[in-house]
Automatic annotation (TrEMBL):
SMART domains to which the protein is assigned, alphabetical: HTH_LUXR, REC
Entry's transmembrane regions: none
Gene Ontology molecular function: DNA binding
Record-linked InterPro entries: CheY-like_superfamily, NreC/VraR/RcsB-like_REC, Sig_transdc_resp-reg_C-effctor, Sig_transdc_resp-reg_receiver, Tscrpt_reg_LuxR_C, WalR-like, WH-like_DNA-bd_sf
Protein name listed in UniProt: Response regulator transcription factor
Amino acid sequence: MRVVIAEDSVLLREGLVGLLARFGFDVVAAVGDAGELVAAVRRTRPDLVVTDVRMPPGRTDEGLRAAVALRAADPGLAVVALSQYVQHSYAGELLGSGDGRGIGYLLKDRVADVAEFVGKLRQVAAGGTVVDAEVVRQLMQRGRDPLGHLSPREREVLALIAEGHSNAAIARILTLTEAGVGKHIGSVLTKLDLPVSDDTNRRVLAVLTYLRGRPR
């Protein structure tokens, strides 16, 4: 798997290069600012981009804005934002790009297990959506709540879907049967009035509704 890493901290950048190489990733470029990230992606056409949010020259949200632009040009490009904080202004736009497939937003300080982190990168590269629970919580605090018509249990189920849990995992966490989880998910999809398509895509759309904080 070909990967481009964008991280302005030299130590962290080199650490990521070594870590991913150890797990069999082919790091085709490792850069330190947003302009270099865009150029590297255009030059190497990677399978996955792992980028920090705050990068030179302004050290605000340049990395995230570059990721949004790259996804706009190529919605199939898998991108993981790896940051110390949640950048509200562009997080929803990034997570909503490409129908929400092949996208991730993880917080550096909450990465506690290397193997799990690498697994999440592979999940995103395969088209999955992985969002840290703290990112979900912070984005949900903005604006009015579009999910007021969901029951408390349906909200819990949708929050766990947004965190990337499977039906079986949700059943274990909430002490429900998988059939019960499936019924709650069906109710959520119906109440959010999502367009009929494959179940995987509808789950992604439900998560995007949840994260954006407004009805679709």
